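Hi all, long-time lurker, first post. I run a small reading group and we've been trying to get comfortable going from sequence to structure in the token notation. Rather than ask abstract questions, I figured I'd post a concrete chain and ask someone more experienced to write out its structure so we can walk through it together at our next meeting. Sequence below, copied exactly:
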Amino acid sequence: MKICIVNDRLKVILRWWEKFLACRGSLEVSLRNIEAVSTNLPRYNWMTIRCPGSAFPWVISAGTFYTKREKWDKEFIYWTRGYKFLVIDIKNESYRRLILGVENPDFWICEINKHLFK
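-- Answer (accepted) --
Happy to help. Here is the structure in token form:
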């Protein structure tokens, strides 16, 4: 997976096997629609539905997940063991949240915030 910022858009570019596991192509989000960026993984409960996607507990989570919080949130997750969580809260987009596995989440938090507050 590759993350980049181009023309005020955050792009998440998936390789072919990541697309296969996540059951979707690459995605992009307007930086204006990013509400928060953190490493804090949201709490999950038993009311989480993966549809479509792939998962093997604590090895990989990939795809679209619907999670019941105050209401049903649609989240895109691509995380594999050995990577740290980068959590991006979004408004006015298809997904409410992106949860990505990256090597250096602090770098991406700084990069995204730099573009948000320039």
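A couple of things your group might point at:
The domain at 2-116 is CATH 2.30.29 (PH-domain like).
The beta strands are 2-6, 9-13, 27-30, 34-38, 48-56, 60-68, 72-80, 84-90, 97-102.
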